[in-house]
Amino acid sequence: MQSLSLIQQLAVSILPILFAITIPAGAQAFMADYLGDRTAYMTGRRTFSPLAHIDPIGSIALPLLGVAMGGFIIGWPKSLQLNPGAMRKPRSALAKVALVTPLANLAMALLWAGVAAASGYLTVYFGEPLQLMALIGIKVNVALMIFTLIPLPPLPGGVIVQALLPARAAWQFSKVERYSFWILLLLMFSGVLGKVLLPLVQAITLLLASVAL
């Protein structure tokens, strides 16, 4: 997006980023409700409307700052309250709730690929900005899908691993959560996270973009 002004970059980025961060929260809420936990419904979170899941800092300020600085985009939705005790088979239920996050990002990446393909049938005036928005949507969703699968609690990948472990091992693994934030910071600023994840993000993004275009 080097040829675009900062305002143009933010304009084409805000919707893909906002959807990529908030829609998985709605998917989690629907899954939790389906599994017997009505908390999300009672708190107004069982919806795909981004307005119900926006965290001013995590869903808007930090992601747009990442776009403006041309660096790594970090974001999160408003915290979703869950009551595992109300779910059938709580451990496996939490894993299912966690799994819908990367699946939702994958679904959105595919939808944006469809939008990119459809943009070719529009006039240049509408088609070019829509295509750029779609390519951003693909990349952001692929990046978040892979990032959330990192096996560190409370990330979905960590929750899934915890559910697959025997009870005692899962309890020991859960202790890692208190250090997860610092581990992620270390991985990010040391460059390890980028070296491991970036080639994967680029490969999947290129595949979807080449199919769409």
TrEMBL record:
Keywords, alphabetical: Cell membrane, Hydrolase, Membrane, Metal-binding, Metalloprotease, Protease, Transmembrane, Transmembrane helix, Zinc
Keyword Transferase among UniProt keywords: no
Membrane topology type: Multi-pass membrane protein
Molecular function GO labels: metal ion binding; metallopeptidase activity
Example of a GO biological process term: proteolysis
Subcellular location: Cell membrane
TM spans (from-to): 53-76, 97-122, 142-167, 179-212
Cofactors demanded by this protein: Zn(2+)
Main location (coarse class): membrane
Protein's name in the database: Site-2 protease family protein
Organism lineage string: Bacteria, Pseudomonadati, Pseudomonadota, Betaproteobacteria, Neisseriales
